[in-house]
Amino acid sequence: MLVDDAWVERTARRPEAEDGLRRETLLLPWLADRLPLAVPRPVVVGEAPLTVRHALVPGSALGTPTPDHARRLGAFVRALHDVPLADAVARGLPDAATTSGWRRRAFARFEAEVAPRLPDDRRLRAALDRLREVSPTAVVHGDLRAEHVLVVDGVLSGVIDWGDARAGDPAKDLEWLLLDTGLADAVIDAYGEDLTARAHDWRAVGPCYAVVHGLDTGDDALVAAALDALRAAS
């Protein structure tokens, strides 16, 4: 909720949402001092239900990125991934053991419930095998895409929506930048490492999350659309 056109206020409507909001109040203000673009700095302003508030990060969602945007975002992601993981975990970031468990359980479902629905599951299974061996080595945003990158007058101003931040694979944060912007060279130059191959593996696996969510919620249309995306990528 926007308050006085200057503050973003969020309330935990369900008990299970409280942990995530509290984690953000510990992690994000600390993280903000270490990054070259603005991020929210939430603080607790109420209890029962838990309510947090942060100053509005100015800007609107990034449209078509330019080479300068790509370079700056590559540098931003590099700075994020260079943040000491242990220090972030001490401030509530889900650690490598936790996120490895999440990945292991998700991949097991993908193999059991998604792969058999494909006419050719070899690409998916190969990507799962490769990603299963990748350790969660960095602080990652977890959902970096154009909608979460803000600009003011064409200049990058901030990155929002940190609810999926965790210890993770750096390539996942680079998926959109490397595969969708058409500016991979500028991103790689600024980031200092080419993780395109692993980004393609994450792209191959990505629709599986929608498939199992659709199965869990009875959303047949979502399942069908996600399976179509997987077939197209095979």
From TrEMBL:
Name of one Pfam family that matches: APH
Signal peptide: none
Gene3D superfamilies, per the entry: 3.90.1200.10, Phosphorylase Kinase, domain 1
Aminoglycoside phosphotransferase domain span: 6-196
Record-given protein name: Aminoglycoside phosphotransferase domain-containing protein
